[in-house]
Amino acid sequence: MTEAKPIEQPTVLPRDLNVIVEGLRRARLDSGGGHPNHAERGVRFPSRQALARILRELGAALFPLRLGPPELTPGNENRWVEETLEATLAQLTAQIALEIRIVHPWIDSVEEGERADRIVGSFAAALPSLRRALAQDIAAGYADDPAARSVDEVLLSYPSVAAIIHHRLAHRLHALGAELVARVIAEVAHGETGIDIHPGALIGSSFFIDHGTGIVIGETAVIGDRVRMYQGVTLGGEPSVTGTARDVGEAFVRRHPTIEDDVVIFPGAVLLGPITIGARSRIGGNVWLRSDVPADHVVEVPEPRILPRTSVELLEYKD
Questions:
Q1: CA-to-CA distance for 71 and 49, rounded, in angstroms?
Q2: Taking the model in full, what pTM does it have?
Q3: What angle do CA 265, 269, 270 make, to 5 degrees?
Q4: Which candidate, 111, 144, 114, 127, places its Cα nearest to that of 55?
Q5: What's the rounded Cα separation, in Å, for the pair 171 and 182?
Q6: What b/e string do you get for 94-110 counting C-beta neighbours within 10 Å, with b at 16 or more?
Q7: Cβ neighbour number for residue 281 with a 10 Å cutoff
Q8: For 251-284, what is each residue's pLDDT tens digit?
Q9: Which residues fall within 8 angstroms of residue 37, CB to CB, at 6 or more apart?
Q10: How far is it, in rounded angstroms, from Cα 236 to Cα 273?
Q11: Nearest Cα to 269, choosing from 244, 236, 245?
Q12: Which of 68, 173, 243, 302 could disulfide-link to 64, CB 3.0 to 4.6 Å?
């Protein structure tokens, strides 16, 4: 076999770069950065890198002896949590102020700061209740997974727990009006875990995702208490109702499934549209579902057939 010749890469001369840079500048001005006034006003956007760092610090403040620095002890954790929250919440306020400036472009700096302070103040006040909710999620993971040897193992090594921590924090910010910041936080979790949960989704207590890779939970999904979900599950929008609330001029349009209490959804199931899955039901693997399911029902695909091999020999392909 003849060896393929490497593809020669074109050389970009320094003088060519000036033309390219100018072309990129004009392209940015033409697009307006997503808003007709953003380019010329030099508007800054919330930073994904900064928010990823903020979420790491918040997670450590919620679980200091597990996710915090190794030198922490029960004797000094409270002081460390206080110092961490003081710095991290200030950084979060700055990121939310950037969003407020984008959403309300002509707001003055005083009101911008006051709005950001109110959002972060309400968010900070909710942290103890969010910590208790996360403890229930972790306990559910330990109870439902026979492979787990301890609650600490679930917290430290399950990507689904990281995704749930991000979601519960992002959901609270989303509800308080910091929707762009919340969306970026959700995408940070998505990139790190492969679990895509829109911050608008409402999730009840003791939620457990086993494995989790490929999970998709849409914006208007509602999930009850003690729901268990496996990898590859989609709670998606029905194609015929994928228009958003702003498209139809309404405050809320339900586009995604509602999952009632104590439901289990097995790997690969796809649930689409504003359907309701009744309490204590089981949705089998690889099910494609677009209709309601009553409480206490099981939905499964037909069982695969097991057939004997035919007498036809398999062909062997040789190089």
A1: 26
A2: 0.84
A3: 120
A4: 127
A5: 7
A6: bbbbbbbbbeeeeeeee
A7: 20
A8: 568 999 999 999 999 999 999 999 999 999 999 9
A9: 43, 105
A10: 6
A11: 236
A12: 68
